[in-house]
Input
Amino acid sequence: MRTTVKSVLFSIILAAPLAMAQSGKDELDSFKKALDQFKAGKYEQAIPAFQTIAKNKTELEEYARYYLSQSYMKTAKLDEANTELAAIESLSPNVKMTIDVQNLMGQIALEKKNYKQAATMFTKLEKRTRNTESYPEIIYNLAVAEQGLGKRAQMCKWLVRLYEKHPGYSKVADWGVDLATSKFEGKETACATSTEDFRTRVRYLLFAGLDSRAQTEINAMKTNLAKVDKYLADKLQVQFYMQEGELGKAVDMLKPYYEEKKRDFDYLILFASASARAGEVQLAVGSYYSAYKLNPRSKTGRQALYQSAFLSYQFQDYDGAARRFQEFMKLYPTSGLTKDAKWHLAWLKYLKGDYTGAYKAFSDMQSEKQRNKRAWKSFPNDRVSYWMAMSMFRQGKMVEARAKMANLAKDPLLGYYAIAAQARLKKMEVMPLQKMASTNLPTQQRMISRFSAGEFLMPNADDMSFRGDDSESEENLMITQYSADDEREGDEEAEVEGNPDNKAVDVAANDEAPAAEGEESAEAGGDKAVSFSSPILMKRFERARDLMIIGENEWARWDLYDIERKTRNRDYLKTLMSEYSTAGHYNRSSYIAQVTFGTTRASQGVDGGRAMWELAYPRAYSESVDKYTKQFTVPTELVWGIMRAESSYRRDAISPVGALGLMQVMPFTGYKVATLVGDKEFKPPQLLEPDVAVKIGSRYLKRLMDRFDNTIPLVAAGYNAGPHRVKNWLVSFGTLETDEFIEHIPFLETRNYVKRVVSNAYVYAKLYGNKKDLFPYLSEAVPVKVSAELVGKENWDDI
Output
């Protein structure tokens, strides 16, 4: 392999001790002292030191000017601040610095009533800051700028966004039901809203844990609506009941409208969703099918047909399900849902005990995947192979079943089906081959309980973007009472542009193609490829190390990311992983190890490539994890497994519906768990602090471990979908064996989530010395039995 002088030189520099990367010690000390003064509010004292560092044009110039500009702003020297910010822009700052500089320039423009410049700045930032803490502030300032420009329509656009999706934001927290009469910058907004806008607002109030406020506002809105249309008033209450799990009340409120509304598409979808979740199976299936018949060409109508088939299948109306699945496949052959329909028909045969038919159906799917790899690219081959093996096992074809399971168990990346196959092989080892072959295997249906219809619907989602027939699948089938609104919203919640933390990965089987020898290729953003001999990137690296020395790890992360996004050189990326890990930015080091070095980990195995595996599966925030897993007697493997599945170790992760932090805890759950640990001062933003996130998440996992007898797949399912749903599933199909139960979890998101957590926990145990078998029940009957009635929401009194 050819080695360039440049590569050798840079490798030597990267391998140098931290001291070599430092700015002059005096300069670093001076910067640290000025920064401490800034943080203490002593802006006048900090200014001279920042001025000196900026004037010397050293590695810390950008940061000196950044804090100097803020010091000027704090002392009302806006022109001087603007000058410093403009100077930073000329220095090619990192992504985070660019965003902050634009934000500060926008704020100065507002102060100086230069609304055109402010609108330009905040418009740039609007997309880049979505799903971040700063987003509400950005669109609030954008609304102020539009107001200053006299653009009422644009102003109202952003105020409606705040009204709908950020009702807890401090500057609008006193707004009520009527946005038009709510105050904005001292005046009534006069902005109109629809009932759909209000409905969205209620959802986000509930997401934020503000249930009583939501009901108060619903009562006020109902009073107003009832004067015009009683159904609209009741519809609001129904949607609140459904969000709160009061499903019987929701159905009872909708039933009287059936004759009047049975040809109203939106009513049928709402009634079907409510009936399904309440266990009114026939009402749900019939309403979905009627909705499809009314509007067969719409996205929601098409998905209503699929959902009617799906519910029939889950409720053991096998003939009705088959008819509707086949009808769907005939009418919409190019829909991605057709592949899911084929899967369900094959899985249905397995559950009915028709193992020969199941094997053939799974085998046909595998053959079709091989013929048309592109169309079936997203359909997991190991899933099909596993159930082909199980179909042979159930027929008593032990030799063939063992061979197929043994092949699955060899997966070097230790995916879920490899772990499940290992469990099945262990079970087969204790089963005499000849005896097994002659055993009368069960042919009756493998599920005998009544199902709760709603427990097989896709979970509510705030955002659904339809990407065309071929991409349509159960993964993006979110047909609920909110479907119409979901179509309206489109792709509003875009990813934050340039944010490294938005890159996440579940499973990577192959490395990225490396750049040609001696060169690097730029990734996102279309940046020109830059070699590491570039003074700019060398400055980034050295400065990142300086920032880590003085404890500014967050800024170090962004400088390292500036290098990461411009190279694919594997040696450089290895060094970056080490630096990220040192700075505590495990999401980035894990991402590189997962995506770029997947093949390396696979070829070397856990023992041969342990260092790379540990970067992919780090002991992230180990001090907090060790402390709280001991306090609450929860396995560390489970906490890290959940953390990896939820946030990929990103401590400031915020989901579109408001889940926060490493463990992605919803505010309502955070409040409840904080009460359990005696924290009376808890506020949801604290979940963005790693220690609080691990504490709250671990205590909630303890609650689930107690409830489900330490059965990790059930705990993971409860963490994702709610323990009440897991209880319902246990009532409905808990007689299955554990791997079958996992495969039958009706929420696609939850089913895949459980598989990821099982795989994650298994790898953590293997990496860090836990020799105990975490899943001895995986090929056995589900070890938890319940006899409770079906329930619609989590019972927090049942601790």
Remarks:
- The longest strand covers residues 183-184.
